[in-house]
């Protein structure tokens, strides 16, 4: 059994299978989440229940968070009965949420003042990657902390890259979300154009997969569009949140992102039209809606 005791906070679409994989790897696990159903499932599988984040931290050598947004992470890590309240010097915090880089650096500094290392380690790969343990993990933080975390991260991901200091992982994730959203939009436009031109979009997808336009997004999300299966692997409302992070980072650095501005608008339209709970491949639905106007 691995020596480190792990705490895991946030058992959503991504967090629950990640926690399951850590249990399967033999780690002792203490869990907490706002929704009790997933907690019950993980406890039944062998984990220990905690009543709040501070209790998770007290029971753990390494505390992992996987939460929806920056404010959620700040509350769980630094708020009342938060991780900082229960954690001991020498412990490690790994935030695997996708949040803003600047607050990430501020939280890391708050933990460092107590002798505690914090890594930002957002992931890409969706629910399937979380289930299979094949996520891409983008890590920001001190090298010694990354070395310590590596056996844990290797349970969760197939590609782990130490991008740079605190906040660098979140910057890498913003870049990832820029590319992913723009590519989903391009695939949706291409398949709808094929259909409206009287050409079988499934055959167009097959042809494109064999050429320079081939991508994992064309493969996976292109098929979702053809099958019209938009049950969430990653929700539109969460990608809109990530789009805001991209927009803020671009504004702060004076970086032009003209193509992404269009995609961010599409994500916002889909959210406004009530499609926030659809998978982000559901941008296809928004295109259909626009063409019907």
Structure, explained:
The strands form two sheets. A six-stranded parallel sheet has the order 3-2-1-4-5-6, with helices on both faces. It has a three-stranded mixed sheet with strand order 7-8-9. It has 14 helices and nine strands. The chain has helices spanning 15-24, 36-44, 53-58, 70-78, 83-86, 101-112, 126-132, 143-156, 168-196, 201-209, 216-227, 236-253, 258-272, 283-292, and strands at 5-9, 28-32, 48-49, 62-65, 92-95, 117-120, 123-124, 135-140, 157-164. It is globular.
Question: What string, H for helix and E for strand, traces the elements in order?
Answer: EHEHEHEHHEHEEHEHEHHHHHH
Strand content: 5-15%
> Which descriptor suits the 3D outline?
globular
Using DSSP, what is the number of strands? 9
Q: Please bin the fraction of helical residues.
A: 55-70%
Average of pLDDT: 96
Report the radius of gyration as a whole number of Å.
20 Å
Ends apart, CA distance between termini: 60 Å
